[in-house]
Design a protein that fits this description.
The chain has 350 residues and is an alpha/beta fold. Helix content is 41%, strand content 15%. The protein has two domains: 183 residues, NAD(P)-binding Rossmann-like Domain (Rossmann fold); 151 residues, N-(1-d-carboxylethyl)-l-norvaline Dehydrogenase, domain 2 (Orthogonal Bundle), CATH 1.10.1040.10. The chain contains 14 helices and twelve strands. The structure holds NADPH dihydro-nicotinamide-adenine-dinucleotide phosphate and ketopantoate. One of its GO terms (molecular function) is NADP binding.
Length: 350
């Protein structure tokens, strides 16, 4: 079977799943979106609108979309399964894949966090599982809007583990299509830890209620992000983890760039600030929808390293506690000011 004919199942059609699945369907790939009934109904009724920062705005008509809410129907069709559920649902999705997918289906995690591919590997049977990393943010239209719209609000290439599947699957050949740039990478561990450094900002966006571009433009928030990254780099260094470059920058330079005055940051960090004014973070989406966040897989992963290596992490602890409180309150983003996030006595510029 030619790579372009492989059947791709999107396991968890939300923001990332609908964006990736929509681009693939528009490129003529055979795609089935495994969705919750609410999203299934919206897609069947209005189709899927897929737009991006570069000005593309395309519609996949309802009859051109494969969508199903039943894993027993969707998963057995897959040659390739792209897992796009939040980390808290990885285990459940792994069990569904084990129960319903063909043994030769290749599973690819397109999730944040550093160990979702390992979780899938451990629980989805003997299948080949590859780690992936999505660098861009996707904004989903408010519930009820038809057609459901997913907008890629920033840029970047999706990285997927070079799995040495010679002859079996040319990952980039299947997935690299218009609107979705995909490349393989030989060291996904470094890529995922590098991405996690940037994802430490997801919580700040979620706590502040600010769009990402406005939050990053404010040095008071950048100092908190820089402080978290310092703590994370110390814990990673003590654990022998070397994160990959982020937004073209060596990780050690990130805190320095983030601490620059606003005017200089805006000048030098143009690539980091190329973001749609509406984009926030996936953790903000979770707080707004009253769902559990990925704080355990993001700040929590670094806190685990810090605890094991005895490196201090007061800012990461404070941010984690605030996100947990907001999750428990289920009132959406608490709209905190930067001063409310820094623990008493701690320095943002540590
Ligand atoms: N959003 C973004 O911009 C970015 C997200 N990411 C990462 O990508 C991953 C996915 O995030 P995102 O797309 O935002 O998440 P979403 O919550 O928007 O999408 C996940 C979807 O999967 C659904 N789902 C969960 N379990 C099942 C199931 N068993 N069967 C069918 N559907 C299911 C969820 O429904 P329900 O909620 O009802 O359970 C939800 O609709 C996360 O790890 C995130 O961190 C990475 C980069 C950017
Ligand atoms: C915002 C972005 C793209 C980077 O932090 C992200 O990964 C998310 O929203 O989860």
């Amino acid at each position: 079977m030619a790579d372009g004919e492989k059947r791709i199942v999107i396991a968890g059609a939300g923001s990332i799943g609908c964006y990736v699945g929509g681009c693939l369907a528009l490129a003529g790939r055979q795609v089935v979106l495994l969705a919750r009934p609410r999203i299934e109904a919206a897609l069947r009724q209005g189709g899927l609108r897929v737009s991006d920062l570069e000005g593309r705005d395309r519609l996949v008509k309802p009859d051109a979309l494969g969508v199903n809410a039943d894993p027993a129907v969707a998963l057995p069709q897959a040659d390739v399964i792209l897992v796009t559920v939040k980390s808290g649902a990885t285990q459940e999705m792994a069990a569904l894949i084990k129960a319903h997918a063909r043994p030769d289906a290749v599973v690819i995690s397109l999730q944040n966090g550093v160990d979702n591919a390992d979780r899938l590997r451990a629980r989805s049977g003997q299948r080949t599982v590859l780690a992936g990393m999505v660098p861009f943010n996707v904004v989903q239209s408010p519930e009820g809007e038809l057609p459901l719209r997913v907008h890629r609000a920033s840029e970047g290439k999706v990285m997927i583990e070079d799995g040495g599947l010679a002859g079996l699957l040319d990952v980039a050949g299947v997935l690299d299509v218009e609107g979705l740039a995909v490349e393989t990478h030989g060291d996904m561990k470094a890529v995922l830890w590098g991405k996690l450094l940037m994802n430490l900002n997801n919580a700040l966006v979620a706590l502040s209620d600010l769009p990402l571009a406005r939050e990053l433009a404010d040095r008071r928030w950048r100092l908190i992000l820089a402080g978290q990254i310092d703590e994370a780099l110390r814990a990673m260094n003590a654990s022998g983890i070397a994160p990959a470059r982020i937004a073209g920058l060596r990780p050690a330079l990130l805190p320095k760039v983030l601490r620059l005055p606003d005017w200089l940051f805006k000048l030098l960090a143009r690539r980091m600030l190329a973001i749609d004014p509406q984009a926030r973070s996936s953790m903000w989406d979770d707080l707004q929808r009253g769902r559990p966040t990925e704080i355990d897989e993001l700040q929590g992963a670094v806190l685990g390293l810090a605890q094991r290596t005895g490196t201090p992490a007061p800012l990461l602890k404070s941010v984690t506690a605030l996100v947990r409180a907001a999750e428990a309150a289920r009132l959406g983003s608490p709209g905190l000011a930067p001063e409310q996030v820094v623990p008493p006595g701690a320095s943002r510029s540590a």
